[in-house]
TrEMBL record:
<dbReference type="GO" id="GO:0009254">
    <property type="term" value="P:peptidoglycan turnover"/>
</dbReference>
<dbReference type="GO" id="GO:0071555">
    <property type="term" value="P:cell wall organization"/>
</dbReference>
<feature type="domain" description="Lytic transglycosylase MltA">
    <location>
        <begin position="122"/>
        <end position="311"/>
    </location>
</feature>
<dbReference type="GO" id="GO:0019867">
    <property type="term" value="C:outer membrane"/>
</dbReference>
<protein>
    <recommendedName>
        <fullName>peptidoglycan lytic exotransglycosylase</fullName>
        <ecNumber>4.2.2.n1</ecNumber>
    </recommendedName>
</protein>
<dbReference type="Pfam" id="PF06725">
    <property type="entry name" value="3D"/>
</dbReference>
<dbReference type="GO" id="GO:0004553">
    <property type="term" value="F:hydrolase activity, hydrolyzing O-glycosyl compounds"/>
</dbReference>
<dbReference type="Pfam" id="PF03562">
    <property type="entry name" value="MltA"/>
</dbReference>
<feature type="compositionally biased region" description="Low complexity">
    <location>
        <begin position="34"/>
        <end position="45"/>
    </location>
</feature>
<dbReference type="InterPro" id="IPR036908">
    <property type="entry name" value="RlpA-like_sf"/>
</dbReference>
<dbReference type="InterPro" id="IPR026044">
    <property type="entry name" value="MltA"/>
</dbReference>
<keyword id="KW-0456">Lyase</keyword>
<keyword id="KW-0961">Cell wall biogenesis/degradation</keyword>
<dbReference type="InterPro" id="IPR010611">
    <property type="entry name" value="3D_dom"/>
</dbReference>
<dbReference type="InterPro" id="IPR005300">
    <property type="entry name" value="MltA_B"/>
</dbReference>
<keyword id="KW-0732">Signal</keyword>
<feature type="region of interest" description="Disordered">
    <location>
        <begin position="30"/>
        <end position="53"/>
    </location>
</feature>
């Protein structure tokens, strides 16, 4: 959205830091409250409910209804939502009060969890390379090949494989391609190796540093050329974004493929090297460090060998497409763990603004997922696109509570 990479992949602060020893424990099964204890009779009893402006939430629910409307519990709700004018605040409030029940989410006795943020970068660029726009946004290389190698087979020495498609191999005892799993520095949680063929051998694909030095210039299409290599790096962290071209139009790009290397945190590297403190290791803090140390930019980027390749997305003006398959709304969409929160449902979020104690309370819609979004009390707020959205997303690491809103008569257990 995961991150996906995205769908969200990693929330931005976690992707930048990913500090050793800070891994999240496996999520426990949530404690879903019974209606007699923690389920509100109506959303009207939620904190600050009467201060909410629900037009953007209602519009987001209509988007969710593109996926939910065929479900019996949601069909009537979606029909009514479609008929409501977004500008009628009182009608929207009555709709949510009359149609939904609010369930406070809990996990092992806790009712507070972590709320992070993500965004869609906006870069300046061109379809053509120039002195102003020298940095390529690559599509998937033609010579990038993948093969699934289960962990149980990684220690068996050399393996054999055969071609199963232009960019796909399959293991086969009589195959004519040799694979040595020990050659590949891969994420131990995954089974897919990415590489390139050299004669009858599969070699690891090029690293970020090699790609930045031009190793795939002849084998990968260029979707656009952009002005700023730093913004290009953070576009890869997010996995999707927009590029404003010379004529004022926008090119939407999203994740297409990856070079096979696990993500390595440049924020962690800077902290470990004593270049900055943990508290300063935000996206803006890293950008400031690069501005002060431009001669070390390439050294820093090479710390992360992972490289993301993009594809062009439909060119409408909507937000990126989340895991639900509908466009995300800036400030009103969240990524959740769908094992605990059903995609498409409204969620009442009570947290604080980034680096602040000022309350941030609003009704949002669960429309995305992410690889780091685990547990019943975990949310990643989509802030929209551009510089300001990136500022908020990069700094957000707040505590918050959540209430799940479901159509009356539908319980949390039945909604999953």
């Amino acid at each position: 959205m995961k991150l996906k990479p995205f769908t969200t992949g990693w929330p931005l602060w976690l992707a930048l830091l990913a500090l050793a020893g800070c891994g999240t424990a496996p999520p426990r099964a949530p404690v879903i409250p019974s209606p007699s204890t923690a389920a509100s009779d109506s959303p009207a009893s939620l904190p600050d409910w009467n201060r909410q402006s629900l037009g953007d939430t209602l519009q987001g629910l209509r988007q969710s209804c593109r996926a939910l409307q065929k479900k019996p519990a949601w069909s009537g709700v979606c029909l009514e939502a479609a008929a409501l004018p977004s500008s009628d605040a009182d009608a929207a409030r009555r709709f949510f009060e009359n149609r939904f029940t609010a369930w406070k989410l809990q996990d092992g006795g806790r009712d507070n969890g972590l709320v992070t943020g993500y965004y869609e970068p906006l870069l300046n660029g061109s379809r053509f390379r120039s002195e102003r726009t020298p940095w390529p946004v690559y599509g998937a290389p033609r010579d990038l090949v993948s093969v699934d190698v289960p962990m149980s087979q990684r220690s068996r020495g050399a393996l054999r494989a055969k071609q199963a498609g232009p960019n796909r191999l399959v293991l086969a005892a009589n195959g004519n391609i040799e694979i040595n799993p020990a050659d590949f520095a891969v994420d131990p949680r995954g089974i897919r190796l990415k590489g390139r063929l050299s004669g009858s051998r599969l070699l690891p694909y090029f690293t970020r540093d090699q790609i930045n030095q031009g190793s795939i210039a002849g084998s990968a299409p260029v979707l656009a050329w952009v002005e700023d290599p730093v913004e290009l790096f953070f576009l890869q962290v997010q996995g999707s974004g927009r590029i404003q071209l010379d004529d004022g139009s926008f090119l939407h790009v999203g994740f297409a493929d990856q070079n096979g290397y696990a993500y390595q945190s440049i924020g962690k590297w800077l902290v470990d090297k004593g270049e900055m403190t943990l508290g300063d290791a935000s996206m803006q803090g890293i950008k400031d460090w690069i501005a002060r140390n431009p001669q070390r930019r390439d050294e820093l980027f090479a710390v992360n060998p992972s490289y993301i390749f993009f594809k062009q997305l439909p060119g409408d003006d909507g937000g990126p497409i989340g895991a639900l398959g509908v466009p995300l709304s800036g400030g009103y969409s969240i990524a959740v763990d769908p094992r605990y929160i059903p995609l498409g449902a409204p969620v009442y979020l009570s947290t604080t603004w980034p680096h602040s104690t000022e309350p941030l309370v609003r009704l949002v819609n669960a429309q995305d997922t992410g690889s780091a979004i685990k547990g019943a009390l975990r949310a990643d707020l989509f802030w929209g696109y551009g510089t300001e959205a990136g500022m908020y997303a990069g700094r957000m690491k707040q505590q918050g509570s959540m209430w799940l809103l479901l159509p009356k008569g539908l319980t949390p257990a039945a909604a999953l």
